[in-house]
Amino acid sequence: MRPLLTGIATSLLLLANTLILIGPMLLIAFGKFLLPGQSARDACSRGVMWVAEFWAENCKRIFGLLTPTQWDIRGNAELRRDRSYLVISNHQSWVDIPALVQAFNRRTPYFKFFLKQELIWVPFLGLAFWALDYPFMKRYSRAFLEKNPHMKGRDLEITKAACEKFKRLPVTVVNYLEGTRFTLTKQAQQQSPYRHLLKPKAGGVAFVLAALGEQIDAVLDVTLVYPSGRVPGFWALLSGQVPRIIVDIRTRALNPALWQGDYENDPTFRQQVQEWVSALWQDKDARIEALRREAD
Q1: Per-residue exposure over 100-134, b if at least 16 CB sit within 10 Å of its own CB, e if not
Q2: How far apart are CA 181 and CA 197, in angstroms?
Q3: How do residues 217-237 score in pLDDT, each as one tens digit?
Q4: Does residue 73 contact residue 249 with C-beta atoms inside 8 Å?
Q5: Phi, psi (5° rounding) for residue 172?
Q6: pLDDT of residue 45
Q7: Which of 140, 213, 270, 273 lies 20 to 30 angstroms, CA to CA, from 257?
Q8: Architecture in CATH for domain 69-295
Q9: Which of 164, 166, 144, 168 is CA-nearest to residue 154?
Q10: pTM metric for this prediction
Q11: Mean pLDDT of all residues in the chain?
């Protein structure tokens, strides 16, 4: 009974926090259309980020008040809010996102995800994504480009245009290289060579680096581990059934050579990016194993 009551109370408070703050956030966001001058529009963007950070901080307080989860966060002491970061993380559960909020809110610029263009039409969420300046990307399949060669490179142009605003304000961009949440079934289907990870998709991070490489000051290599041995669902977090979460963060320098090339058309450059991603993933797989053993 107690987990049920905890889950209901946590859910209601999180919902109230969202409903109360989404109005002011959208109001400030619309100021980007109404106010003249780039400095005024940038001020609106900063205002939206302030509201989002306030919302996230309230979420942290709610979890801290109602749930017993221990957030074991390592390596975020030297982070700065005036720097831009690329976060690369393993992905196991919807709980991963609250874990990133716990680790990075008010320590780095508010994080953003690259989203599919279709998500802008989702009721309420689409408006929130737009207000937060989340970059909407449109990627064309290889089959489509073969039939429409004049569209080649257009997806990257669209994404770069969407990211132009990041040249004026610091940003934290989150990229899940696996492309989907880890499960043992998916691991077996992929025949993944890693013990705790799916195969990474180098093309996704190459796309991000091509659009934002010059703005990124460092890579934050994040490893998420659930020491209980069981990956929790979001309800388990809401209802206070997740005892501990490890968020291990390592700051890595970003080699400019990783965005100064054509991933799709240059085999040498593509191999360079793939080797970099493979080395990251081998290290992360070993780190997950070490953190699990430490927690046992």
Answers
A1: bbbbbbeebbbbbebbeeeeeeeeeebbbbbbbbb
A2: 9
A3: 999 999 999 997 789 999 999
A4: yes
A5: -120, 115
A6: 86
A7: 140
A8: 3-Layer(aba) Sandwich (3.40)
A9: 144
A10: 0.88
A11: 87
